[in-house]
Structure formats: structure tokens, C-alpha cells
Design a protein that fits this description.
AA-Vitamin_Transporters, mainly alpha
Length: 307
């Protein structure tokens, strides 16, 4: 899904403004998903069942837009592989680990863990040749690691020290997102629009997660009267549809490393929403980690096509 270069394409300053505006908008939607996720697991709904419904709600919204646009889905081997991999590493696996982590950690802490996406994206990009080595970028990665240690190690950073191992679980999701971003930048089918692509991925993900939820007894029944967790499931799915389709578009428009900096907005929004709506509070160690993460993200420079 590369952004075509045309004579009428926006000039560099305009491209940067568009990219920054999109980064903020889609980051706010993504950040809102963190406290919604916390509410969704509050009554014991299993992550696998929640992931299925996330596919359903997001897929329904994206399917409506796809139909309105008149897009046609392609199902050759390349497209099918793309849909399935995006479903797996873009929603199913990170969703499972995020839902699991947030049931044991404050939503804001999980959001801080998500801020490691740019660092992980860069490490993967360097490994597969998508980006060039630079000392300041490696320093940014090191600061991200240090920030996670600042949360995991001090006695006052987490409400309960038994939560520390779950921080490792929370880091699986950003790794998946980083791998997905690099995969999309390297192997996405040419000319594929993000909305129908994500709609097809939601279909694939629902077909995979439904039998898993049923066979493992983790199905979430939404035919019962809805309370806050059920509304949170629907809200999370819709926020996912907006944030994720925008995320895929921004990767094509501005590059994988620039787009990975959406974690700035995701983390800030999720922390703010968690404080306001969930009443969470954090120690000075956590805020120190957030500051360290911000410096690290600054050092992971944007991709050259929007510099």
C-alpha cells in the first residue's frame, strides 16, 4: 500500500501537516480504546471472546464504508495471505495479550507499554533493511527499554509488585504492531486501500477467532442485557476500526517509523482518559518513565518522506 507520487501530490510542508493531523486524530481514537478495554474485562469476559466481537464490530463499520465506496475485494494468494496475517498480528494476537494484560494492570500502564511500538518497529526495520542504522535512533530504543525497567523495578511504580510480570505480557502487543507495520510497508499488495483491506482482515479474524472461542468455552454472549462492559466492547471495536484503518493509511502516506510515533498520542490520550474516567493514578516513577519514553520517541526520527 505505497503512496503514489503524482504531480499534484501535496508539497513537503503540507504533507507533514497532514501526517501530524492524522497522527493526532487516529491516536486519540486508539488511546480511547485502552480504558474501554479495561471496562470490557471488568466482569471477567475472556480475551478470546472479546477479540471475536472486536472483529465483528470493527468489520461491520468497515464493511458499510467499503460498500459505500464500491470497493471490490480481491482473493488471490497474495491478498489472502495479507488479510490473514494482518488479522493475526494486527488484532488477534495483540488483542489477546492486551486484554490479558489490562485485566492485571492499570490501563495507563498498558498504554505506556504501547509507546514502545516505534522502538520495536525500528529494531525490526533495521533487521529487514527498511531503515538505516543511526546512533540517535539506537539511543531512543535504549531509553524505551530503560523506561520499561523504571516501571517494572521500583517498588513504588506499580500498585502491586505482583503486577510486574504482566508488563512482559503487555509488551507482546506493541511487538505485534511493530511487526505488522513493517510487513505492510514491505509486502502489502499494490493499490490496496486500507478500509477494504481491514474489512477483509476482520472477516478473516472473525472466522479464525469464532471457532477458537466456542471450542475453548470462552465465548462472550452479547444476547444478554447490555451493561457498561458490553457497551465498552462495541465502543472498542468501533474505535479500533477508525484508528486502525487510519494507521494503515498513514503507514503508506508517511512511512512506518513516523506512523509508529502514534504511540505519543495513544499513550497521552490513554493516560488522560484512564485518569478522568477510571480514576487511575500513577507514581512519580511512572511519570518519569513517560518522560524518558518521550525523549526516546523523539530520537526515533520520522521517515524521510515527511521530513
Amino acid at each position: 500500500m505505497s503512496a503514489p507520487a503524482t504531480a499534484g501530490a501535496p508539497k513537503r510542508p503540507v504533507r507533514l501537516l497532514i501526517a501530524l493531523g492524522a497522527l493526532v486524530l487516529f491516536g486519540l481514537f486508539w488511546g480511547a480504546g485502552q480504558p474501554l478495554t479495561k471496562v470490557a474485562v471488568s466482569t471477567g469476559h475472556h480475551p478470546m471472546g472479546l477479540v471475536f466481537w472486536q472483529f465483528v464490530f470493527a468489520g461491520t463499520a468497515l464493511g458499510i464504508v467499503t460498500a459505500m465506496r464500491g470497493d471490490r475485494l480481491r482473493f488471490d494468494a497474495h491478498h489472502l495471505r495479507f488479510y490473514i496475517l494482518i488479522a493475526l498480528i494486527g488484532t488477534l494476537l495483540p488483542g489477546l495479550f492486551s486484554y490479558t494484560a489490562v485485566s492485571h494492570l492499570p490501563a495507563g500502564i498498558v498504554a505506556v507499554a504501547l509507546a514502545t511500538v516505534p522502538m520495536m518497529a525500528l529494531m525490526i526495520a533495521l533487521g529487514i533493511g527498511n531503515e538505516r542504522f543511526a546512533l540517535h535512533r539506537v539511543t531512543g530504543i535504549a531509553l524505551g527499554v530503560a523506561a520499561m525497567m523504571l516501571i517494572a523495578l521500583p517498588e513504588a511504580s506499580l500498585p502491586d509488585r505482583s503486577m510486574a510480570p504482566w508488563l512482559v505480557v503487555a509488551l507482546v502487543a506493541p511487538f505485534c504492531y511493530a511487526a505488522e507495520g513493517n510487513y505492510m510497508a514491505k509486502d502489502a499488495p499494490a493499490g490496496l486501500h486500507p478500509i477494504p483491506a481491514l474489512f477483509a482482515a476482520c472477516i478473516a479474524g472473525a472466522l479464525i477467532s469464532a471457532p477458537l472461542a466456542i471450542s475453548t468455552g470462552t465465548w462472550v454472549d452479547l444476547t444478554q442485557p447490555w451493561r457498561a462492559p458490553e457497551y465498552a466492547i462495541a465502543g472498542s471495536g468501533l474505535a479500533h476500526a477508525v484508528a486502525y484503518s487510519g494507521y494503515m493509511w498513514l503507514i503508506a502516506y508517511a512511512g512506518v517509523v513516523f506512523t509508529a510515533q502514534i504511540s505519543y498520542i495513544v499513550t497521552g490520550a490513554a493516560l488522560a482518559f484512564s485518569i478522568v474516567f477510571l480514576g487511575e493514578s500513577y507514581s512519580g516513577w511512572v511519570w518519569g518513565a513517560v518522560a524518558m519514553m518521550a525523549i526516546g520517541l523523539f530520537l526515533v526520527q520520522p521517515a524521510r518522506n515527511v521530513d
